[in-house]
Amino acid sequence: LCIARALAVDPEVLLMDEPSSALDPISTFRIEELMVELAQNYTIVLVTHNMYQASRVSQRTGFFLNGELVEIGPTEEIFERPRDPRTDDYIRGRFG
């Protein structure tokens, strides 16, 4: 419902803050499918702690730590070849 309300004003950018938080896996999958579809016509800024979701639906990823933008780049690069050791530590579950 929140996504539909946001689309009603025909925005250029959609901010989605944890859009599938507390949803079951099937509903989460549907939200992710919708995000991929909407990304064809809208810029979507996704805020999530779910790294798997970020890797599935995003084209670019930014990693913030304590309010600092540590690293930003193509999602595949961030997840597979991070440049900053703090990003690598987070992705590998060494903290978080």
Describe what you observe in this structure:
By secondary structure, the chain is an alpha+beta fold. Helices cover 42% and strands 24% of the residues. It has 2 domains: 9-50, no CATH class; 59-96, no CATH class. The protein has helices spanning 2-7, 25-38, 51-57, 75-80, 85-91; strands at residues 13-17, 43-47, 60-65, 68-74. The strands form 2 sheets. It has a two-stranded parallel sheet. Strands 3-4 form a two-stranded antiparallel sheet. Strand 1 (13-17), helix 2 and strand 2 form a beta-alpha-beta unit. The model has no long low-confidence stretch (mean pLDDT 95).
Label this structure with key terms:
24% strand, alpha+beta, 42% helix, 5 helices, 2 domains
Q: What's the structural blueprint in terms of helices and strands?
A:
Blueprint: H1 2-7, E1 13-17, H2 25-38, E2 43-47, H3 51-57, E3 60-65, E4 68-74, H4 75-80, H5 85-91
Parallel strand pairs: 1-2
Antiparallel strand pairs: 3-4
